[in-house]
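Q: Hi! First time doing this. I have a protein sequence and I read that you can turn it into a structure. Is that right? Here it is:
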Amino acid sequence: MNEIREVAKAYYHGRGEQEKELARQFFKSLDADNNNVVCLQEYKKYVKSSLSSDDEVFKLLDKNGDKTLDFNEVLALYYMDKVSIPRCKVCDKLLLASYFSCLRCLGKPSYNVCCDCYGGGRYEHHHASSEFRDTRALLTMLDRIMDPKACEEDPNNCEKNDADQENGAKRSTSRSKSERILETLEALNAGFLLGGTVVTAVGAVAVAPACIIM
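A: Yes, that's right. Below is the predicted 3D structure, encoded as structure tokens:
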């Protein structure tokens, strides 16, 4: 939860006044009696999301243990509601830190498990464990897909897809960032593999460098 708090605080202080006002209005919507704190009863009454409406989340948010939430503690809740923090498919724990996702199931819906359940093999899934990557590895993969030059310049971490090259496929250099994002998401849904296995997404990316994460 500490990482969530730091991220929420950084967003708040790094954004413009209009977005800060939205966060303040969110806090006021929970603080029914206007005493500048949110008690458990107010929290349960005003928070509607299934993610945040139970006592477990309230206790996690209550950093100082005074059984109320001040503005900074509610900031973390505001962030959690915005990004929709998932739960582990096995133990149902909120995934507040790094976790593992099945690449082939992203958005279908996603299949996410906590580090303990993944590392301990305490899950049953129709895709192999080699299809899973942690959140940081996923971000690294997205970064490399968005910037193909990173793979070209680092032969120790990336390999060209010879099969696509033989078929005469060429990487487009004129695509906009938004187009690359859409292609990346399509590629993920089509089933990217990392860890040295070279697989390109059918119909999504002309040439997809297989960036080795693990």
